[in-house]
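Objective 1b. Sequence-to-structure analysis of Class I SAM-dependent methyltransferase.
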Amino acid sequence: MSSAGTSWGRPELTTNARFREHRAHLAEQDTGGVFRYIYEQNLWGSPESVSGQGSESAATEHIRAEIPALLRRWRVRSIADVPCGDFGWLSTTDLGVTSYFGADIVPELVERNRQRYAADDRRFEVLDLTRDRLPAADLLLCRDCLVHLSFEQIRAALRNIRDSGVGHLLTTTFPELEVNVDVETGDWRPLNLQLAPFTFPEPLELITEGCEEGDGHYADKALGLWRVADLPDVD
């Protein structure tokens, strides 16, 4: 895979290059170790957020307005946010829900969030989306996560979500992408969840983020909403 382009026809981001510079070390880690190392080394390279450029204030301006509106339309009262990352962009957003559960696979990040943001209606826990039991919630927000997982781990995460009792899934998708490719967990590529090997149905709603990374090549980046009961079996 060259730096000039990729098999999905879009330019690589600096995220990919940083990951591959550390690939030998990351290959020795389990999933938690991969993302802990990325956090410790700030491999996603944002000066504002350890969760990466996609979690910066400018990159989330549109969705910080649109997500609460979507939650109101679907009468969402409880939300699980997995992974929650550093909770930076959501910390300034009034979601209008009665309970928020944020989880991440990096213990140090979770502890930092607890110290900064925990409240009676907001808690943070360590959780691996691919295997740990998810809390019951009206909606699971899973932004900028599956794009960093291998196909095998995405399938595990989707099975876990289907078994959780969560009502709706709001997650990252690139609806104009023409082919999905596999990567090592911790790397990055866009995903169109309506294509093989996932074949999601049409989303109930799409929030286009207005992504400016990649000189406009990722302008279709969106949060898609699905009923978990409507998701296909990925076994």
